[in-house]
Amino acid sequence: MGNNHTITATVCVFSGRRNPQWTIPAAAYHQLLLAVEALPATAPQEQEGLLGYSGIIITGGEKKIFAFNGTITVTSESGAKGYADKTHTVENSLLHTCPPATLEEIKGLLPGWLKGLP
What we know:
Radius of gyration: 14 Å
Strand order of the largest sheet: 2-1-4-5-6-7-3
Order of helices and strands: EEHEEEEEHH
Mean pLDDT: 87
Low-confidence stretches: none
Strand content: 25-35%
Largest sheet: 7 strands, antiparallel
Structural class: alpha+beta
Number of helices: 3
Helix content: 10-25%
Distance between the termini: 33 Å
């Protein structure tokens, strides 16, 4: 990944308006990939067109990361791999990287497993 890439996190919560986005530092992105790839394997998942919270997407790095409902899907040129995150550690840690104003905006729209936020 070159220095000119912007790594963006998008939390999918709205229908009909832009979803909140924020930038993630490259070092945090690489740490996230290492943590995800250490999780147990499971079937990858597609993002569904759900109303309300439907996951967090990380784009702009060499791999796309989609976190939702205890499954992390990592997609690269060679295909998609799934990782089990039944405690939602990755989703929670990603939400902790968003700006406080964004977190306040979406906090009431998140499911119970993500309500342990400050």
